[in-house]
Known about the structure:
The chain is mostly helical. The chain has one domain (9-78). 64% of the residues lie in helices and 0% in strands. The protein contains four helices and no strands. α3 runs antiparallel to α4 (56-75).
Amino acid sequence: MSSKTYQPVYYKKMKEAGHVEPIRVIRSVLTPPQLEGFYRGNMIKYLLRAPYKGQFEQDMNKLATYGKWLREKRKSETNYEDAEEPHATKS
């Protein structure tokens, strides 16, 4: 596996403009059950579209990231401020 990090250009532009990462907002406004559903829904999304989108490895890495977050959440109600963002997964 390559250590190349995928980061869309718009994430850099958002950060430079002082915007908050969307995942941080989502984590702050959803209840714990809602957040778990969000993680599960994204896992399903990446699993189902991966064979057709043309970015199989990238989608599988995103699936793994959401799975990691789900496992961490279920172990404890952790503050995810320092968690890896989905666009920063290794491919």
